[in-house]
Amino acid sequence: VLQAQMRANGQVLAASKPLPVAFQEKDGVPVPQTNGMSLGGLPPGPCELRVVVVDRKANVTAFRDIAFTIE
């Protein structure tokens, strides 16, 4: 499954619904996965976007963070 999270100071401010990952290809190239959430109401300041992927069959979790600022 795939989930996007908005985080600040180690806390989750908002999160998308976890969605199953659908592996698809177009012209032999993997189609990107997407997920979304509302950013309305989030306070201004530094935060990070965390993308979490969970492989339930292998019992493995991976994530990547990117920092940015809400103005």
Word description of this protein:
0% of the residues lie in helices and 54% in strands. It has strands at 2-8, 11-15, 25-26, 29-30, 45-55, 60-70. The termini are far apart. The model has no long low-confidence stretch (mean pLDDT 91).
Give the helices and strands, then pairings.
Elements: E1 2-8, E2 11-15, E3 25-26, E4 29-30, E5 45-55, E6 60-70
Antiparallel strand pairs: 1-2, 1-5, 3-4, 5-6
Condensed summary:
This protein has 71 residues and is mainly β.
The proportion of residues in beta strands is over 45%
Our measurement of the CA-to-CA distance between the termini, rounded to an integer number of angstroms, reads 30 Å
Q: Name the structural class.
A: mainly beta
Strand order of the largest sheet: 2-1-5-6
**Rg to the nearest angstrom?**
14 Å
Question: What attributes does this structure have?
Answer:
single chain, 71 residues, mainly beta, four-stranded antiparallel beta sheet, two-stranded antiparallel sheet
